[in-house]
Write a structure and sequence with these properties.
The complex is a heterodimer of chains A (252) and B (232). Chain A has 252 residues and is an alpha/beta fold. In chain A, 37% of the residues lie in helices and 25% in strands. In chain A, helix 3 packs across helix 4, helix 4 packs across helix 6 and helix 6 packs parallel to helix 7. The chains are: A alpha/beta (252), B mainly alpha (232).
């Protein structure tokens, strides 16, 4: 089951430049929350703060309170512990190119010292099924490399890889921006199903995508959270003029 | 980034709806004037207006459909297009009501003139004012103007109720003018329906501008007035 995410007064910097200002919002458990906003508004920085990937950039730092369920992300928890509970899918599919499809999915578990072959087989199959890829790759699991798949299949492989370590939260940073409409449709359908078991936060430039997959949406502008509400409210009757101007395409 | 082509589409939609509104308003005025003057030529004009209104309805729906399919509007733009499609439908029905009135007038002209206890001219003036103001509220994008139209509907409803009582009494007292009284009663009913359509238009304007659904007198907190963006 997914767990809720609570963010309080989150600030983030790149060197002396402040990228996020006092972000406070919640992403409810087992729902998809979309983060939208123009380029440079801080939406990717925001999700990278949720699993402490932001601090992997030199001179970058973050402060504030982020709770993933009962896990206090910035207080006494190691980044490794956090990333075990939070899977992440990136804009460009990034399967391990030299590994087989099977090994791509099993990589996270093996790195954590998990070597029970029978159990591994079960988890790989289950993860690929949940990621709606199993039927397309079940006969070539060990023969083909992850890089030999199409872009859409690679992205679903990355989702299967993230799911294999059984996270509670799945962060998706523009997961469909490099995909064609058919592959995008499959990923969106998948997001809808994954909500039953995971909490999803998705960054997207595509506002129709946000409106299709997410129950909640946050609009970011210049590093600030301008508005957070139910998705239908954001796209039909937003409260803030800046949100309205963005979702109607008047800027951004 | 301004979506220029999209904005042009919205502007085009607004102008077409306003032209159609003008036709519908004119049709009602002509039908009522035809009643007052017992003028068959005006009735004919109303029938001609109707075919133009029907063509306009199809054009507006087609453009709105294209904008929805091709531009994926959101927020105030989405509300605007939805409001336009509904107003479009109401204006087409206003045209139908004008035709109904004209047909009743054509029937009445065939009959001896009867002095009836109903002031159709007064009722027509009130209804025309409602249609005009509802269209003004659309042009201005002002929910306050639309709100005033909603309040006028009760006045017209009362006029229709009074007409019913007095004309039924006339039919009882003077059976020789029953057919004329019935025609007048139906015209009062048609005018009251036009007022209902004007009310619907006003409700749609409020929905567009404020995002509030005020139909069927369901209490709802109306958000504070916001600039309605460039769709105004």
């Amino acid at each position: 089951m997914g767990v809720g995410i609570k963010v309080e007064k989150l600030n983030a910097w790149f060197g002396k430049t402040q990228a996020l200002h006092e972000i406070t919002m919640e992403a409810p458990a087992n729902h998809a929350t979309a983060v939208i906003g123009p380029s440079g508004c801080g939406k990717s920085t925001f999700v990278r703060c949720l699993n402490r990937m932001h601090e992997t950039i030199p001179d970058a730092k973050a402060e504030g309170r982020v709770m993933i369920g009962d896990l206090d992300v910035y207080n006494g928890t190691s980044p490794v512990q956090i990333r075990r509970r939070i899977g992440m899918v990136f804009q460009k599919p990034n399967p391990f190119p030299t590994m087989s499809i099977y090994d791509n999915v099993a990589a996270g578990l093996k790195l954590n010292g998990f070597h029970d072959r029978r159990k591994l087989n079960e988890i790989v199959e289950h993860s690929l099924k949940v990621a709606a890829l199993w039927d397309e790759v079940k006969d070539t699991l060990h023969k083909k490399s992850g890089a030999s798949l199409s872009g859409g299949q690679q992205q679903r492989l990355c989702i299967a890889r993230a799911l294999a370590v059984q996270p509670e939260v799945l962060l998706m940073d523009e997961p469909c921006s490099a995909l064609d409409p058919i592959s995008t449709g499959k990923i969106e359908e998948l997001i809808f199903q994954l909500k039953e078991d995971f909490t999803i936060v998705i960054v997207t430039h595509n506002m129709q995508q946000a409106s299709r997959v997410a129950e909640f949406t946050g609009f970011f502008l210049l590093g600030r959270l301008i508005e957070f509400d139910k998705t239908e409210k954001i796209f039909t009757t937003p409260s803030d003029k800046r949100t309205e101007d963005y979702v109607t395409g008047r800027f951004g | 980034m301004m979506r220029t082509r999209f904005q042009q589409g919205l502007d085009d939609l607004r102008s077409r709806l306003l032209r159609m509104g003008g036709l519908a308003e004119q049709a009602v005025d002509r039908a009522c004037q035809a009643y007052i003057d017992r003028d068959l030529s005006r009735c004919q004009l109303v029938l001609e207006d109707e075919s133009q209104i029907n063509a306009a309805e199809r054009d507006i729906d087609e453009l709105a459909f294209d904008l929805l399919a091709l531009q994926q509007p959101a927020a105030v733009d989405l509300r605007f297009i939805l409001a336009v499609t509904k107003i479009n439908s109401d204006l087409e029905r206003v045209g139908d009501q004008a035709v109904n009135i004209a047909e009743r007038v054509m029937d009445m002209v065939e009959l001896p003139k009867a002095d009836l206890p109903i002031d159709i001219a007064r009722m027509a003036a009130a209804v025309s004012a409602m249609v005009r103001r509802s269209l003004e509220s659309f042009i201005e994008g002002k929910a306050e103007l639309a709100q005033a139209v909603l309040e006028m509907d009760n006045v017209v409803d009362r006029m229709r109720d009074e007409a019913f009582i007095t004309l039924v009494k006339t039919m009882n007292d003077r059976p020789e003018v029953t057919r004329q009284a019935l025609d007048a009663l139906l015209i009062a009913r048609n005018l009251e329906r036009v007022a209902d359509h004007a009310t619907n238009i006003a409700e749609d304007v409020i929905f567009w501008v404020r995002g509030a659904d005020v139909r069927h007198n369901v209490p709802q907190e109306i958000p504070a007035a916001q600039p309605a963006g460039d769709t105004r």
